[in-house]
Amino acid sequence: CSRPQKVCLCPFLPVHPLKVSTCLYIIQHPAEASRVLRTVPLLAACLPPDKCKILVGRRFNEDRYPELATVCRNPNTLILYPGAEATNLEEVAVMSSSPPVMIIIDGTWSQAKDIFYKNSLFRLPKQVQLKPNISSQYVIRTQPTNTCLSTLECAAVALSVMEKNKSIQETILHPLQALCSFQLQHGAQIHHSKEHLLKNGLYDKPMPKNKRKLRRMELLVNNVKI
Known about the structure:
Layout: E1 23-28, H1 30-33, H2 40-46, E2 52-56, H3 66-73, E3 77-80, E4 87-88, H4 89-95, E5 101-106, H5 109-117, E6 126-129, H6 151-162, H7 166-185, H8 194-199, H9 211-221
Parallel strand pairs: 1-2, 1-5, 3-5, 3-6, 4-6
């Protein structure tokens, strides 16, 4: 896990990489790659190297990333990104007959949005989303809403759906749970979502002056999907 011995997570990783047919391409924003408490390294440690490929950057085109362009044009490739045009992953998994490839964008919500909309390659695969029926266990980092998940959690849920194996989700979440436990024991605080803080009058930061950001916060308070 490349962490100090005192907070080593290796005992919480699977002894052998999980056997999965789904291949993940993690598109990681450069700012996320430099974070200390990022979840993608834990995800990669749970999977075979050929099933979890990480590409770091903001802009991806066919000239610089020919392999990625080929992947995006493959009819079996999915991109996990919520929205009005996204199909629930459970519906796609039922119809899937061949080993799929899934693209997941790793970054804050604004960073992920920037990558998704400014790279035309990512609009070629079929867009899918997860049902918002679980809460994030990544409690040491603030999420926008109660149902927003970390990249590792998204991958864990998606793989369990695609592979039709619930134990995959439990195995991948195990090191994340241990990570959060270690951090809380060493002084970290539980971070409630921004949605929770706003609704309960606990948000102690200055309200944004930007009208668009202010409107998004109003929508969170009023239970409007954003």
